[in-house]
Amino acid sequence: MSPDPQRTPLYDRHVEAGAQMVEFGGWSMPLQYTSMREEHLAVRNDCGVFDVSHMGEVHLTGPGALEALERAVTNRVADLAPGQARYTLICDEAGGIIDDALVYRPAEDIFTVVVNAGPRPKDVAHLREVIGGACDMVDITDQVALVAVQGPRALELLQPMASIELAPIGYYHFAEGELNGLKATFSRTGYTGEDGFELFVDSENAVAVWDAVVSAGARPCGLGARDTLRLEAGMRLSGQDIDETTNPLEAGLGWAVKLDKGDFVGREVLLRVKADGPARAFIGLLPEGRAIARHGNAITDAGAPAGEVTSGTYGFTVGRAVATGYVDAGHRQSESYQVVVRDQPVNAQRVPLPFYRRPRD
User: Fold this and answer.
1) How far apart are CA 34 and CA 248, in angstroms?
2) Domains in the chain: boundaries
3) With b meaning 16 or more CB within 10 Å and e meaning fewer, what string describes 329-353?
4) Mean pLDDT (the chain, rounded)
């Protein structure tokens, strides 16, 4: 861990609970409290709670906010209704992915962009450059804590403490209310593949909110389980699955790019990528046996170099190893590959993403 990683308002709670702390994105964060498996399965079967206060929040206000934001991100923002959120990408001029983000629209001329911890400095600098003086822009990360309550019992656990009805909040929608008398924004989003809510609260109220959720029965979970959960759900990890060397179309995120919405940073390059076809494809793989493919492992196709693994783990819900990676366009039609683990080729079946999809009522 570097000498001075930043600490979230919940740092002391994690240390008191015996969490294994690691540096992530410049922050000291809990990797696990007990085991990744126990925490992973708690989220799949019951309810878990994550401290995600390391995420960044940028606030845009003013009549020019909408037009400026449309230029800065790939997805369409104009049709967002107040109380709605949307996944998007922030690209550079070459079409490379600086970061992925969520855009929230609390009111007509007010937007909050939630970005990842590591790329936050680049995100903020990029947004400032693109937006210029078109609207007011403030990085409010230090003022906001973010607590993610995830799992099939999340609604049942939170509702008795909430001042508003949570069930009517749709997926990728949010509403303002209170939790045990403390102001909170309840966002029905997440990064685990399960139902749940992310709670935006004032930093000074983070401990009280965390304690209330844990006391109600949510299991504290660390970054380890967050990673295994998101990988089973087929979600990309910024800086690992996607970065400035990848573009949204090859990353399988073309649905978050609206090339017909007007000009935005990276659009001209992405138009050419769409016309020519992506040079690579992002795929899901099921390695055989007990081998766990890891970031950077080579992917081969009948012995020929084909690509590289970006993420790999043991999927505790699906009960086997899972991995994702990029293969060159010339190998994208294959149904089976090999991943090279500890210098040994391991057969791997190509499968559609996600590896896991939660049951629907």
Assistant:
1) 36
2) 6-52+142-232, 279-361
3) eebbeeeebbbbbeeeebebebeeb
4) 97
Task: Answer yes or no: same fold for 6-52+142-232 and 279-361.
Answer: no
Q: What is the DSSP letter of 19?
A: P
pTM: 0.96
Going from the C-alpha of 11 to that of each of 16, 52, 203, 309, the distances in angstroms are 9, 11, 12, 33
Helix (H, G, I), strand (E, B) or coil at 227: helix
Three-state DSSP class for 44?
Answer: helix
Percent of the chain with pLDDT over 90: 98
Tell me the per-residue pLDDT of 311-339, one tens digit each, with 9 for 90 and over.
999 999 999 999 999 999 999 999 999 99
Per-residue pLDDT at 361 exceeds 90: no
Cis preceding-peptide flag for 248 (omega within 30 of 0): no
**How far is the C-alpha of 218 from the C-alpha of 69, rounded, in Å?**
36
The per-residue pLDDT for range 241-300, each reduced to its tens digit, is: 999 999 999 999 999 999 999 999 999 999 999 999 999 999 999 999 999 999 999 999
Residue 246 and residue 274: Cα distance in Å, rounded? 14
Superfamily of domain 6-52+142-232: Probable tRNA modification gtpase trme; domain 1 (3.30.1360.120)
* CATH architecture group of domain 279-361: Beta Barrel (2.40)
